[in-house]
Amino acid sequence: MTPEERRAELAESLAEVRERLAKACHAAGRSPEGVELLAVTKTFPASDVALLSDLGLSSFAENREQEARGKVSEFAELRPQAARRWHMVGQLQRNKARAVARWADVVESVDSERLAEALSRATTNALETGERERPLDVLVQVSLDGTTGRGGCAPEDVPRLADMITRTSDLRLRGVMAVAPLGGDANVSFDTLLSISERLRVDHPEAVDVSAGMSGDLESAVAHGSTRVRVGTALLGGRRLTSP
């Protein structure tokens, strides 16, 4: 596929996703401007990110630090003047915190105090060495099915983790994130997440982000207050294979 053909394919997919978002917002009585579209570019090349940037997107997400590191650098070379904001949305090990702090603008998958501590140290170091220019925005990932296999802390642990994050100097609490449980009712899951978010904002009014909804359930997420949907397949197509 030529770059021109790929651009046309991505433009068509982007138009379809934006139409879905617009309809979902209309049905929920919300403004489309209140829901951010986050392009999940994992397993896709930096050239696709560049084309999406040309089409008007500026928020991109990765879930593996090793893949993201090279892609962020390559994209910066391809589009040095383009606005961009990189999100880490995958499960993150503490030993990857220093590397992630060098390229991520947002980490959406903070689910433990130990990980938050590691990210805080890494961010402070990156600021001191000039590897980043501003504090790191973070979201608390919530597990909505009682398991930790896909990441996330228990709902009852959210307040304590949020309090700990706000005590750090270089992390900024921005809200919550969750993935709807496989085989579960997305409406019930996202309603639960909205309740958690509303309770969190009582003590942390700055934590307004609700990252929820993907290609298959974004309408439900929007109906239940999501402010950011994470879309990969519907935007970029079927997942490509990458080397480990």
Topology of helices and strands:
Elements: H1 3-28, E1 36-40, H2 46-54, E2 59-62, H3 65-78, E3 85-88, H4 97-103, E4 106-110, H5 113-129, E5 136-141, H6 158-167, E6 171-177, H7 186-203, E7 209-211, H8 218-223, E8 228-231, H9 233-236
Parallel strand pairs: 1-2, 1-8, 2-3, 3-4, 4-5, 5-6, 6-7
Descriptive keywords:
244 residues, alpha/beta, eight-stranded parallel sheet, 8 strands, 45% helix, Pyridoxal phosphate homeostasis protein, PLP-binding_barrel, Ala_racemase_N
Shape: globular
- Give a count of the beta strands, DSSP E runs of length 2 or more: 8
Mean pLDDT: 95
- Class derived from helix and strand content: alpha/beta
Major sheet, described briefly? 8 strands, parallel
Question: Percentage of helical residues?
Answer: 40-55%
Strand order of the largest sheet: 7-6-5-4-3-2-1-8
Poorly predicted regions are none
Number of helices: 9
From the alpha carbons, calculate the radius of gyration and give it in angstroms.
17 Å
* SSE pattern: HEHEHEHEHEHEHEHEH
Residue fraction in strands? 15-25%
Quaternary form? single chain
Distance between the termini: 24 Å
